[in-house]
Amino acid sequence: MASPQSPASSVSSQSSRSFNPNRPSTLEDLVGHFVASKRALNTQTVLWRANEIVNSARELLEENAILAAKNSAIRNIVDEQVDGLEAVRQGIDVVESEVQAEYKQLLHDLDASYAGLQSTLAVLRDTPIESALQPPGTPQKHLYDFIDNATVTNLKDSLRACIDRYNEAHDGLKESNDEYDTSLENLHSSIENVPLTPTTASNPSPIPSLYRDLEGHAKEAAQAFQSLVQHYDLCATALRHTEGGSDAATLATGEAPVPSSDDISTPPEPMTEEELQEMLTVLQKDAREVEDVVSEIRERGSEMTFLLSQIENHIALLRGEDSALNSILQLVRRLAVQVRGHISTSHSYHASWLEDSRPTLLSGIEEWENQREFYERFDLAYAELLVEIASRRRRHDKAKRKAEEAQRELDRLHADDERAREQFTVTQGDFLPLDIWPGLRDPPRKYEVKAVAYERENGDGDEELQEIAQSIPQLGRNVVERALTRVKRRM
């Protein structure tokens, strides 16, 4: 909308002019333009609202910067804290995995050693004591009847109790880890549900741009309104320079057409006919644009309201994100407190493993192996006993034969001695007095080969004399051969 030129000094002394029907505008038109321009000034309320919108947007712009920085900082803090919580959880998993792997290996070794012991005990159960070694009429015994079964049973019970303690500690750790995992899942779910304000490095916050658009609309609306004010002043000036214009305007609007820039008591500045004609031409041209200017101001007001709503929507997102992130921080704080308990449970589990379960299982494996080795030696010793009995029997038989041979030789020598003495007596006995040697008539000394008694401690620690050793049993050839085979196989 064009503005009128400043009126030059009038060459006429009259303060108002009579209406000339040949002029471009009639008095009725001028009054209509004046009424329309005055009505158009009601758009000032749009400017007031525009000012409020700009002020509100300015505050929201500041809040946007604060919230965006705060939310970004909190997200970074949350990410760091979540990484720390995940690292702790992974550390607990590493401890559990290492212990579980070693535990399973030790259980495997324990089962293998126990199975080896049971295999050895099965051999003892199936190995009967030779009947020749048992007193007549006694029940058949096996090697297993001579072992201390309580040692095996006690160790088995001890290991079972150790495994129960380990399982109890592991169940406690598993329960703790399940709670930890649930807390982490809830935390991740809460983080995923945090409303993410759509701002990135490539897509920054829209508020600064929206605020610039608001300022542009406000400035343009203010300039448009200023043109309306100028048009109103031009209408008022034209009416004041037209005869009857002020009265007609007063009748139409209830107030005299006084320009805002002039005092009511000041008479209108004189202007030439050419200047008046030029002013009316401008007025008529601008009058056609008033409605467009009013529409533009209202549209800009509506656009500013829409832009403010976009800013408010974005701020609402930021506020929602801020509130949700604060809730996430509370979750992180609570979980951080709970983590101390989870770490303590993991430490207790690991300490129980190192101080109780592991050494007990290792000791059990060693004990099973020692018992298996001992009972294998027992089985081997029995086989060697059978071989030894056979050897003793052979030596006994050989000694007996030698003793019998010696006895026969002694008996022969004794008989020879008797015959020689009798012959001597027959030949010389009549000539020798009996008292010449007291042993002249004695029979020859007789020698006997017999078993010698031996000494053996009784149950009280005293020694008792055994008149003769028990006879050595005679084992079957197949028994001795089997025993020899077993001895050779284990050598």
From TrEMBL:
Pfam families: ATG17_like
InterPro entries: Atg17, ATG17-like_dom
GTP-binding among keywords: no
Highest taxon listed in the record's lineage: Eukaryota
Region span, Disordered: 1-23, 249-270
Residues of the Autophagy protein ATG17-like domain: 41-432
The UniProt record lists the keyword Lipoprotein: no
One term of GO molecular function: protein kinase activator activity
Protein keywords: Autophagy, Coiled coil, Cytoplasm, Membrane
UniProt membrane topology term: Peripheral membrane protein
GO biological process: autophagosome assembly; autophagy of mitochondrion; piecemeal microautophagy of the nucleus
Cellular component GO terms held in the UniProt record: Atg1/ULK1 kinase complex; phagophore assembly site membrane
Compartments where located: Cytoplasm; Preautophagosomal structure membrane
First-listed, main subcellular location of the protein, grouped into a coarse class: cytoplasm
Residues forming coiled coils: 273-300, 389-423
Similarity comment text for this entry: Belongs to the ATG17 family.
Function: Autophagy-specific protein that functions in response to autophagy-inducing signals as a scaffold to recruit other ATG proteins to organize preautophagosomal structure (PAS) formation. Modulates the timing and magnitude of the autophagy response, such as the size of the sequestering vesicles. Plays particularly a role in pexophagy and nucleophagy.
Protein name stated in the entry: Autophagy-related protein 17
The organism of origin for this protein: Amniculicola lignicola CBS 123094
Lineage start: Eukaryota, Fungi, Dikarya, Ascomycota, Pezizomycotina
